[in-house]
Design a protein that fits this description.
Layout lengths: L3 H15 L4 E6 L5 E3 L2 H8 L4 E7 L2 E6 L2 E6 L5 E5 L10 E7 L4 E5 L6 E6 L7 H4 L12 H9 L5 H6 L9 H10 L13 H20 L40 E5 L2 E5 L16
Parallel strand pairs: 2-9
Antiparallel strand pairs: 1-7, 3-4, 4-5, 5-9, 6-8, 7-8, 10-11
């Protein structure tokens, strides 16, 4: 958390709140949030920079400035809070504050301090090493089945582990991987290279549809997520498997189980999502 739908909703909120504003000052309270350059240089370079746009790549936000691209990764619990009050107090867990020339401010809060910001030259965000490794966006025009099918064939990792890596398709975190695999009736421990063509076809369709619907519903609020406008998401009411350990499966009635895969709590239905003993790809 937050995953692609939540980051996209944050992006849309930031467009409403800060697009067109000029940065007067940047206050850095916790230096480690700034991955590059040095915090002092980061603050100096951002003085008098105007925010022309806010974009997204995978789970990364990209603030398009006049002379730079500011890359922001929220990680587990990062969030942006906007205020029009010139003398408002600094809230707990606030680590970076962008003060604008009109007196408003945008604060970056992060209880776990895992989020990071990077400042690169203008239009160079997509060349930054972390973004270069990303797979396609989960939309019809970019997430092509032929490429997905080929990448599955090359991996012996569990399908859940592979989807979490962001290299085969971006945006899926723990919640949405569990949901998509339940929808596609695929066991999370099934090796990627053993999926049938019909399973991979359905999984791709489910990924695109699930993330699109989650965006429409404002994302998923499990613990602390709120968008840039301070509102919670509503997709949590749509969850079919995540967080439902020992509750009845909506499809078959069996009890949802929870196991650990690659250190991540994983929810699945043992009846609907059977683990098949296959050796390599089976063309059926």
């Amino acid at each position: 958390m937050p995953e692609l739908p939540e980051v996209e909703i944050v992006r849309r909120g930031l467009i409403q709140l800060v697009k067109g504003k000029t940065i007067q000052e940047v206050q850095i309270i916790y230096d480690r949030i700034i991955a590059f350059p040095l915090p002092s240089s980061f603050s100096k370079k951002l003085q008098d920079e105007r925010i022309d746009d806010v974009r997204r790549r995978g789970k990364f936000l990209i603030f398009k400035l006049r002379h730079y691209d500011l890359i922001s990764h929220l990680r587990m619990e990062g969030k942006y809070v906007f205020s029009n009050q010139k003398n408002s107090s600094t809230e707990k867990h606030t680590h970076v504050i962008f003060i604008f020339t009109d007196g408003s401010k945008l604060s970056y809060k992060d209880a776990r301090k895992f989020g990071r910001m990077v400042l690169v030259e203008k239009d160079q965000a997509l060349s930054y090493r972390s973004l270069q490794k990303l797979g396609p966006e989960p939309v019809e025009s970019e997430f092509l089945f032929s490429q997905f099918w080929e990448q599955l064939a090359r991996s012996k990792k569990s399908i859940k582990t592979l989807l979490l890596e962001q290299k085969i398709v971006v945006g899926l975190g723990n919640i949405y991987v569990d949901e998509c695999l339940w929808q596609a009736k695929i066991h999370p421990e099934q090796k990627a290279n053993t999926l049938l063509s019909k399973e991979a076809t359905l999984l791709r369709e489910v990924i695109i549809e699930t993330l699109s619907r989650a965006i429409k519903l404002g994302g998923t609020t499990i613990r602390s997520y709120k968008n840039a406008l301070g509102k919670s998401g509503h997709f949590q009411s749509e969850l079919k498997v995540y967080g439902r350990k020992d509750k009845s499966c909506f499809r078959c009635g069996d009890l949802i189980q929870k196991i650990s895969i690659s250190g991540r709590g994983t929810h699945f239905c043992p009846t609907c999502q059977k683990l098949h003993a296959r050796e390599g790809r089976v063309e059926k």
